[in-house]
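FAQ

Q: What does a record look like?
A: Structure on top, sequence underneath. For example:
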């Protein structure tokens, strides 16, 4: 696909692309990265240099010249990536739907459904009425009883299908103010904030004392429901701030494509620095001082 695109936009065969930056999940694995670079050079002879980089690297390169910062992801899954100014990186979460993904769309769906099972089994009684969620589950998954969920969660498991139920939970919270829906999103907000506080002991003083405080780039569809996450999220941050480590924090939302970050990394491999206007690549949707 890349070779075909190159042939279409570069009509003269003697003209080559100096470098290509690629935003690809898994690029932090050095062996896989080198294999991809080798393959690309073999298949795409119009490109002189290929630089695969992670989604985190690309996103953070859009808001900081150094590429340092914190990225909080909550889409189908969840993860928090930290890259300090010295290049040292640390991850919290991102271990998949069985071992992690707290606060993600999948987790929100799973949590809401699990509460139904626990309540009806008498294992853990819900303090909120389960009627709305129970009906929403049956309609969304096109089932008549909860036993049918066995296929959906096991033999015919589709993580994106399950994660998609998060939209129905959000509707219940925003449109009818259902208590259980509101509770699950509040819990999701708390878990997402805990991803940040888990990273704080490793964050450099330079990042903590920057203008606007610690800058956290937030990406993923779950943040479209920020109003539902907000209270639980802030409660956790305020509780942690009492320990004195966190003085100020800003949550950022990207307003441009991460392709800009990929292009930045690609250019840097051939000693070119792109003239990026960083403040035009994001908006601040929360700033808090403690």
């Amino acid at each position: 696909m890349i070779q075909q695109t190159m042939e279409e936009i570069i009509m003269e065969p003697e003209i080559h692309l100096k470098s290509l930056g690629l935003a690809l999940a898994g690029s932090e694995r050095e062996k896989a990265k080198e294999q991809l670079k080798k393959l690309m050079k073999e298949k795409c002879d119009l490109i002189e240099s290929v630089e695969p980089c992670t989604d985190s690297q690309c996103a953070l390169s859009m808001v900081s010249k150094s590429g340092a910062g914190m990225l909080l992801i909550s889409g189908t899954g969840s993860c928090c990536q930290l890259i300090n100014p010295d290049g040292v990186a640390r991850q919290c979460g991102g271990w998949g739907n069985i071992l992690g993904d707290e606060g993600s769309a999948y987790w929100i769906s799973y949590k809401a459904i699990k509460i139904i099972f626990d309540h009806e089994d008498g294992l853990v009684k819900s303090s909120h009425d389960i009627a709305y969620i129970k009906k929403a589950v049956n309609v969304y998954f096109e089932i008549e009883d909860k036993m049918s969920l066995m296929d959906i969660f096991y033999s015919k498991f589709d993580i994106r299908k399950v994660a998609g139920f998060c939209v129905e939970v959000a509707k219940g919270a925003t449109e009818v103010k259902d208590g259980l829906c509101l509770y699950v999103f509040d819990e999701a907000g708390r878990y997402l904030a805990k991803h940040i506080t888990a990273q704080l002991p490793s964050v450099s003083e330079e990042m903590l004392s920057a203008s606007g405080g610690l800058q956290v780039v937030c990406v993923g569809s779950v943040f479209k429901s920020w109003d539902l996450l907000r209270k639980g999220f802030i409660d956790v941050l305020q509780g942690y701030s009492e320990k004195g480590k966190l003085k100020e924090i800003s949550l950022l939302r990207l307003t441009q494509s991460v392709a800009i970050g990929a292009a930045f990394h690609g250019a840097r491999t051939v000693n070119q620095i792109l003239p990026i206007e960083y403040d035009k690549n994001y908006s601040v949707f929360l700033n808090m001082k403690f």
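Q: Is there anything notable about this one?
A: Residues 68-253+279-290 form a domain with the Nucleotidyltransferase; domain 5 fold (CATH 3.30.420.40).
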